[in-house]
Specification:
mainly alpha; elongated; BP-dependent_transpt_permease; transmembrane
């Protein structure tokens, strides 16, 4: 048997576990090549690149910080915007100061505290929507790409219908007839509109990988469908899904803010950056701080997820190396 050779990364079609392990339960295993040498893989190379990427480090830090804001806002402020006496009309539109960094809104509520607590709904919408889109679109794309046939044709026509509906316009239409909105209903609506993109990515990646030599070898050695799909197809098809989903997470946060700004997304008394921006628009000329601070935090959050997605794309796409 000839010695296995190392191949350069050429895209998502490269096996996630190089070496004899891809061909089945033969001798050798995935530990490496001759003499115990570790065989490089797309994922290990990508992680090495990510650790050296300033874009990934900055974006990852900002994302972790925003998630921490959403999960434990008490770490950053002692005040609770839902507590009685939090807002005082006597403080209406007061400018930022040393004790109140972001100033007060028109109702006399501390903008800093509301901005911190508003991160929860925005992050929930982004994470829940992305999770639902990946689970639904990924599962359907995996099934359609592997099985094909009539089911694949029907799903492909359905996705074409959804692609004709812009995300924001479709969200406005559905939410305007839904009634009162919250983070969960907004997430459900955007997931319904967003899954076709992930479906197409997963389906095309499966079609590109299922006829590769390592899949044919695994089938020849007697591997079942579940093993082939789980061990060989899915790990090599998921890379583009991860990249697009990371970028889209920021897009969903921005879309939630837009819907809330228009009054058809998250509704009061819930706190959302979009709601804060909507409430502040009429006071922008005489009190710009009311709008600037929540808008700046929203922009930084969306930018952080886009930076993270760009870094992951650069690491997983060998054409950009």
């Amino acid at each position: 048997m000839s010695e296995p050779t190392k191949s350069e990364n050429t895209g998502a079609s490269i096996p996630a576990q190089a070496g004899p392990a891809q061909a089945g339960p033969g001798k050798g295993g995935a530990a490496g090549g001759k003499g115990g040498e570790r065989v490089a893989s797309l994922w290990s190379d990508a992680w090495t690149d990510l650790r050296r990427s300033p874009l990934f480090l900055i974006g990852g830090f900002l994302v972790l910080f925003m998630v921490l804001l959403a999960v434990v806002p008490q770490l950053f402020t002692d005040a609770n915007p839902r507590a009685g006496g939090f807002c005082n009309l006597a403080d209406s539109l007061k400018r930022p100061s040393g004790s109140h960094w972001f100033g007060f809104d028109v109702q006399g509520c501390d903008i800093y505290t509301r901005t911190i607590w508003g991160a929860r709904n925005s992050i929930i919408v982004g994470l829940v929507t992305t999770t639902l889109v990946v689970l639904v679109g990924g599962a359907l794309g995996l099934w359609a790409g592997w099985i094909g046939g009539v089911g694949d044709s029907v799903l492909s026509r359905v996705t074409e219908i959804f692609f004709a509906i812009p995300l924001l316009l479709g969200g406005m239409l559905i939410m305007s007839t839904w009634g009162e909105g919250n983070a969960w209903t907004v997430s459900a609506v955007m997931a319904v509109l967003g899954w076709p993109q992930i479906y197409r990515l997963m389906r095309s990646a499966v079609l590109a990988n299922k006829h590769n030599d390592y899949v044919v070898a695994a089938r020849a050695l007697g591997a079942g469908t579940g093993r082939i799909v789980g061990r060989h197809i899915l790990p090599n098809a998921v890379a583009p899904v991860i990249v697009v989903s990371t970028i889209n997470l920021g897009v969903y946060i921005g879309a939630e803010a837009a819907l809330s700004y228009l009054g058809i997304g998250i509704q009061s008394p819930a706190i959302s950056w979009g709601l804060m921006i909507s409430d502040a628009q009429a006071r922008f000329l005489n009190a710009p701080h009311v709008l600037l601070f929540p808008a700046a935090v929203l922009s930084i959050t969306v930018l952080a997820f886009i930076m993270l997605g760009d870094a992951v794309r650069d690491a997983l796409d060998p054409k950009l190396r």
